[in-house]
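Q: Here's a chain of 370 amino acids. Please give me its 3D structure as C-alpha cells.
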Amino acid sequence: MSGPALHLAVELDGEGAHPAAWRRAAHAPDQLLTPRHVARVAAVAVNAGFTLITLDDGVLPPGAAPDPVGRIGAVERAAFVAASTSTVGIAPVVPLTYAEPFHVSSQLASLDHISAGRAGWVVTEEERPEAARAWGRPLVADADARARESADGVEVARALWDSWEDDAVIRSVATSRYLDRERLHYIDFTGDTYAVKGPAIVPRPPQGQLVVLGRPDRVPAAQLDVALVEGRDVTGVASAAADAGTPRVFAEVELALDTPDATAAERVADLERHAPWTDRGRLRHIGSADQLVALLGELSRHVDGIRLHPLVIDEDLTVLSRLVLPALSERRLVARPLPGTSLRSTLGLERPANRFAAAAAAPAGQEDAR
C-alpha cells in the first residue's frame, strides 16, 4: 500500500448503481444530461474530498424503458468536469473491444492536458453482441479475444503517449521551429488484429502516462497502475488484492446508506419493486454511515483505495459527504487531494520516464538487455 491515506473514488454515471435509481433522484429525468447536473454532482464529490471521480460508459444505452436510456460520452463529461475543477482526479470508462486505440489515446492525452495532469482511464470491455453492430465491427464474442483487444489497446495507448518526448515541442517563433522531429517516434505496433505506426497527434500527457485502472483478470497487471478488485466480503477482497500484482489496488464497493427519510434497507426494497439490483460479485454495504466507516477502515488494511458505487447518487452522495468522509478524515484514514497535484502524485505513483528517451540514453547493448 502507498501509505496510511485511503484513496476514495466514486462512480457518478447516471443516477446510481441501481437501474431504477432515477425514481428516487432529486431532479426530473430530463435534467440528467444537462451540464448543470453534471457540474453539481461533481462539485459535491470535490467538496467532500474524493480522490477520484469515475464515469461509466459504453456504446450501448445504459438501460431500457422505462428507465432512462440516455448518456453523454464519458470522455466528454470528464473534459467538462476537468475544466471546472482543480483537485479531483477524473477517470472515464473507455472500452477497447471495438474502439480504435489511436483515437482513444488521443482523447485521453487531451483530457490529461485539460485537467493539468489529473486524468485516469478505466479500461473495460464491450460484452454485449449489439455493441459490435453499433460499431459496425465483427463480433468479438470470446472472452479471451476481448482480453486480447484490451491488452493490445492499452499497450498501443501507452506507447503512443511516449511517442512524443517531453521536450519535443519547441514553440520558437524566432526560429520558426515548433517541433523537434527527432523527438517524435514511430511505435510500430503489430498485433493479431491491427497495426499502429504512430506517432501520436497529441503531445505527451503532463503525467507522462495516465493512471490506468482495470480488472487484473481482464487486463495484464503489468499494464495497470491500479487494479480494481472484487469480493463479496472483506476476506474475498483481501485475497484478490494480494493476488493483483499492481502498484495500487482499489476495492469495488456498492452501497446503500440510511438517510433521514428512510433506512438503507427500505430504500433498496423500494427500488427492487421496479427492477433487481444486479449482483456483480462485489462487496455490498446496506446500512448506516457509521457501519460503512468501520467497513472502510477494515478494508484500508488490505487495499490502497475504494471505488464506491452509490445506490442513488442524489441520496447517498449527500450522506457520504456529510457523514462518511468527515468521519474518515477525523480518523486520519483519508486525505484530500491537493491543488496543483497530479493524480499520479496523489496516488504515490512516480511519473514514468519516456521509453524512447530512455532507450536513446542507454549505453550500447543495454537497451537489448532490458
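Q: Can you summarize the key feature?
A: The CA atoms of residues 53 and 90 lie 5 Å apart.
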